[in-house]
Amino acid sequence: MLEVKDLSVEVGGRVLLKNVNLEVEKGYTTVLFGPNGAGKSALLMTLMGFSGYNVVKGQILFNGEDITHLPVNERAERGIGIMTQRPPNMTGVKLRDLVGVIAKDNTDIEKRAEYLDMVRFMDRDINVGFSGGEIKRSELLQLSAQKPCLYLLDEPESGVDLMSIEEVGATINDLLLGESKCVGERHERGNSSLIITHTGQIMDFIEADKGYILCNGTVMCSGNPRDLLKEIKTSGYEECVTCKRKRI
Amino acid sequence: MQEKKNLKLNAKTALNKTAAYGEDFDLDKFNVTSQEGEYTEDLNDLDEDTQRTLLNVGIVPSGEGRLGSILMMDNAISHSSISDANIELMSLHHALEKHEWLADYSWNLVSPDADKYTAASYLENADGYFIRAPKGIKTMLPVQTCLVIGSKDVSQTVHNIVIVEENARLDVVTGCTTSKGVERAMHLGISEMYVKKGATLNFTMIHNWAEQIGVRPRTVIHLEEGATFINNYICLKPVKSIQSYPTAYLEGKGAFVRFNTIAVAHPGSELDLGSRVVLNATDTRAELISRTITTGGKVIARGEMIGNAKNSKGHLECHGLVLSNEGSQRAIPVLEANVDDIELTHEAAVGRIAREQVEYLMARGLSEDEAVGMIVRGFLDVGIIGLPDELKEDIDRTIAQIGKKAL
């Protein structure tokens, strides 16, 4: 579904990503680990096509099509959806209006708004005065309306209080299951995702299939996400950095 | 009598007095038309073009959803009707004949010698509208007033008085515009508004001029204890120059004022728009909200709050979008506190639409122009209610054009 080939990205004259190779298969939930400043968010922003993230080398393929230089909205039209860490304050733009435009004939959206406790935010300016958790819930409501087939989620659990982590986790799980009626169908009929997590907490709510570790702008390692998380929790990322250096 | 004579003398000496702000216009280059003109019994009888012109400034020719209508064409009142017997709506000259006491309200808040525009209006004995909501009367529908410049190269002079008596409530929609084909003219408008104890006045003004029109309104509002005045001002179409600085005096405890301004300066337009509040009584509150866009014209957004009484509060918000390199935005917020225990704040921001905001919406599948349109619409939405659908559609069309220019 998504193939990142030898991707190098420059932001403000600084190379943040170097020769990144990564793959997200259809219906698979892929987790991206890495220390602060590794370039995880930059990778997601680049995949969505936001300006300021200049691809200097490599390719992004989505369902076999080269989307490296496509505008943001054309990527969204092809089925890519994103939840960023710090979305901008959208003064004057009401959540209800945006969700209405995105949802088109998607009628389940009101139920989702109730579940996410966002009904009272529908007539507010998006992100203006929202808490960390409210931003995440608002983003999930928008994604529920958008219904992409590839979800790029940047630390969905960060800033979410204990009370609403359940709703956030369950909503993400539901969105990823997509059309599949049971877990067994997930790889054939479910949606794909690339999820950044710092703490691994989100993995309590979703079935993660594959993990990558990104350090210093480069993919260092990949494998079973739970094994990787265990390793990171015991030894931190320092081992990964040294390991790569040894390989080089 | 002596006093009136003095006013006249003062006005005469002010005939060449340049206004404090805005381009100076030579009024001798404009014709003065008669205060007598053709009368229209029913606004539905107006030709299709004129009806469309009225609708685009929020005036409904059928009168549906309106309590009453008054139409001024150049300097003559050409229609006046009211369906609610409780409300007085008529030409100011007629009202001055009817009510002797009204003379005390006339040229009481606005000085004839303030500048050459007030002086000319005074000396011409300008007519206009008079609206009065008597004590305790609360209207549900707005009264509509329409000022049209119907002839080329004229100077339209208008003098209006609005009185909302104790505990009454009145909504007014005023549309100011030009007939098709009138490109160059002047509009001078004096408005004196009185909102008495516990009363509410919602005043919405829509300006829709042509490219060579100069506009110089002079408005003062007087508020008593517990009174509320909400002013909405909308100007989204090209004009040569508007300079306006309405001032509200909050003289009674707990009075409240809000000025909402939304305006677009097209190439060749100069908009010098301000609002000023003087908080002269305790517990008074004021909110001044200005959202302006330039697509090539010049905007000066002024806002001034003067706090003279304890426990009064005011907030001023001046936001300006610059959508073209040719345009300019200048925000001039002024706060003055003359006592302690007072809270006056402001926020001002001018600049382009943030790329980040556009892409945020594009990431949800909106095209670039849909995204810009949504941001511009949101920017200009300050929650003005009661506008007719035709005007809303016209506003949407204007916003869509602005959005396209922004790309």
Folded structure, characterized:
- The complex is a heterodimer of chains A (248) and B (407).
- Chain A is an alpha/beta fold and 248 residues long.
- Chain A has a single domain, classed as 3-Layer(aba) Sandwich (Rossmann fold), CATH 3.40.50.
- Chain A has helices at 40-48, 72-77, 95-103, 109-115, 132-146, 162-177, 186-189, 225-235, 238-247, and strands at 2-11, 14-24, 29-33, 54-62, 65-66, 80-83, 90-94, 125-126, 150-154, 192-196, 210-215, 218-223.
- In chain A, the strands form three sheets. Chain A has a six-stranded mixed β-sheet with strand order 6-9-10-3-11-12, sandwiched between helices.
- In chain A, a hairpin with a 2-residue loop joins strand 4 (54-62) and strand 5.
- In chain A, helix 5 (132-146) runs parallel beside helix 6 (162-177).
- Chain B is an alpha/beta fold and 407 residues long.
- Chain B has two domains: 2-355, no CATH class; 356-407, no CATH class.
- Chain B is built from seven helices and 21 strands.
- Chain B has helices at residues 2-13, 48-55, 92-98, 116-123, 355-362, 368-380, 389-406, and strands at 68-73, 76-82, 88-91, 129-133, 143-149, 155-164, 169-178, 184-195, 200-208, 212-223, 228-235, 241-244, 247-250, 256-265, 270-273, 276-279, 285-294, 298-307, 313-322, 328-337, 343-351.
- In chain B, a hairpin with a 2-residue loop joins strand 1 (68-73) and strand 2.
- The termini of chain B are far apart.
- The mean pLDDT of chain B is 94.
- The interface between A and B is medium-sized, with 25 and 24 residues.
